[in-house]
Amino acid sequence: MVRESTGTGRRHCIAVAAVLGVLLGGIAKTEAALYTFTKIADSTGPFTSFGPAAMNERGVVAFSAVLDSGLWGVFTGEGAGTTTLADSSGPFNFFGPPSLSDNGVVAVQVFLDTGRSAIVRTDGSTPTTIAETARGFRILLNPSVNDDGMVAFFGLDATGGGIFTSDGIAPTTVAHTPVPFIAFGDSPFLANSGAVAFGAFDSAGRGIFRFQGTATTTMAHTSGPPFSLLGPPSLNNEGAVAFVANLDAGGSAIFRSNGSTPTTIADRIGPYNSFGNTPSINDKGVVAFWASLDAGGAGIFTGPNPSTDTVIAVGDLLSGSTVVELTLGREGLNNAGEVAFVARLANGIHAVYRADPVPSELQVSVDIKPGGTPNSINLKSHGTVPVAILTTATFDATEVNPTTVTLAGALVKLKKNSTPMAAYEDGDGRADLVLHVSTQDLQLNESSTEAVLKGRTFDEKAITGADAVRIVQ
Known about the structure:
With 473 residues, the chain is mainly β. The protein has no helices and 48 strands. It folds into 2 domains: 2-357, Methylamine Dehydrogenase, Chain H (7 Propeller), CATH 2.130.10; 362-472, Sandwich (Immunoglobulin-like), CATH 2.60.40.
């Protein structure tokens, strides 16, 4: 189920019609995650087309694009206009897909007016040259930047290919041919920890490797089952990689690996027919990926079941038209579950979007006037009503932020020192959260039989619960 939004700001997404019962290539989308969609930029002006998008933890999206004027550029946006970080009115004449750090710094491959190519880093001020083909390299490809401003990239120098990192002063070699690697993929991925993931061939076949400090860990390899071919990895800050792989038994699948036995995220045994080669992984281990379906159609998904794990799909309504094509980049998913993607619509518009998940409410156990039954409330009372949020086997009440809780619309009453009237009390060996709300603030009437509690946890998860009440005079 999908909700569409106009996207006028970072969190100002106006939900319009929810489309129910839409068929995704013959598969009904039911109980799916709910998203609003923030438009970052589209081809109605000043842009004409877009490359793959990258996104950071703040929900800022970076993309390369061609302008109506014929210029190339790299830009960022959150939904309320875009910022130009660099364009081809200066020394650059082409921009590759950008990588974006959480502090708004972009690393991108550029071609120079001189005919050379370079890797540059910029936040919109004077670009810093990380590496250039006139400075020891013949080929430079696919940079990845972290929050320290360090950039990883593939380079071909006078002695062979390698994976390098640099902050613009001097490159450091992560791995190089001929030993132990014979050749490299051209898409390294750099985490904030300084770890670098990359694909490479060695004497035993092709593998995905993670380098950190002085140690190289094999994350997956074709020398043993089940892999026959491995795509480029994405890497999270916890050290796990995500990748697409062809299998010895036939077909392909999306995997996550932390260096031990890989976990299958989605495969062709189910409804999927094929997968894109750029899955994105966040620090929670969630993986977003592009896939086509056996029943027809394609989309961006976050799990094995299109009925529940669809972010956006071909055929969905978006911006008053229908999606006909979708593109996901390796930095398309963040820890909030937001997904940046590029869409082509049936009306000819090409656009960059951010999908913002609508948080679902956690159901919690609530006990109004703990220890008493029935829960009688005199609305004319000038006192307070106690309510307990219970700790259970699946929920810890100490995670609730008392200042966010309401009972029947009434906020938790404050003490004279402006702190909420809240305490933890032992309930069957577990700490329950007991709160007090002002009776006169309860939005109940004589016919009310239930009071609903709302609130949020300290990490911003929405909660809800209810208990029966009896209104007395």
